[in-house]
Amino acid sequence: MAAEDEKVLRSELCYARWDKYPVTEGHLLVIPNRHFPDYFSATPEERTALWAMVDEAKNLLDGRCKPDGYNVGINVGVPAGQTVMHCHIHLIPRRSGDSVNPRGGVRGVIAGKADYSGDGYPRYSRREMEYSDLGHFGRRVLRSQDSQDVKVGARLSPGK
Fold first, then answer.
1. How many CA atoms, within 13 angstroms, populate the side-chain half-sphere of residue 153?
2. Is 42 in the same domain as 1?
3. What pTM value is reported for the model?
4. Which domain holds residue 50?
């Protein structure tokens, strides 16, 4: 369970906190207070509380970052990409232009962002390297000379 100061929103049955490996600025997790492995293990009351918290978190993000859209996601089981075995719902704010091709939504979420490989930097394919400006958040691709991958995340001054 998160420390009290990490909780952005809270209710009797769940809370929201910022994701430690955000896919976009404002990426929130909605997490039940009771520990259980996945969404399908939640009680009906917990499911209701989780979705009410998703709505509350969306309202918070609408006011704070004014995104153009959202992805809402739940990973259940290792084969589905679940890495933390405690139920949680991702609320990911989206901006026009934050992905090369957002078509398909949750089928790809944001290409290359799923693998944060322990160093905190998402990976992008060589095809995506052509897009050096990632838009609204002022982030640019750091090109890697010795790898097929590039790291994203550092703030660079204009023109670099």
1. 14
2. yes
3. 0.67
4. 1-96
Which residues on adjacent β-strands are paired with residue 7?
17
Number of independent structural domains in the chain: 2
**Exposed, middle or buried: residue 11 (CB in 10 Å: 0-12, 13-18, 19+)?**
middle
Catalytic residue flag (residue 88): yes
Q: How far is CA 52 from the centre of its chain?
A: 19
User: Which residue in the list 27, 35, 86, 88 is annotated as catalytic?
Assistant: 88
Q: What is the pLDDT along the chain (160 residues), one digit of tens a residue?
A: 678 889 999 999 999 999 999 989 999 999 999 999 999 999 999 999 999 999 999 999 999 999 999 999 999 998 888 999 999 999 999 999 888 777 666 665 445 554 545 554 444 444 443 333 343 333 333 333 333 333 344 333 343 3
101 within domain boundaries? no
Single residue among 43, 61, 96 that ends a domain in this structure:
96
Tokens standing for residue 106: 């949750």
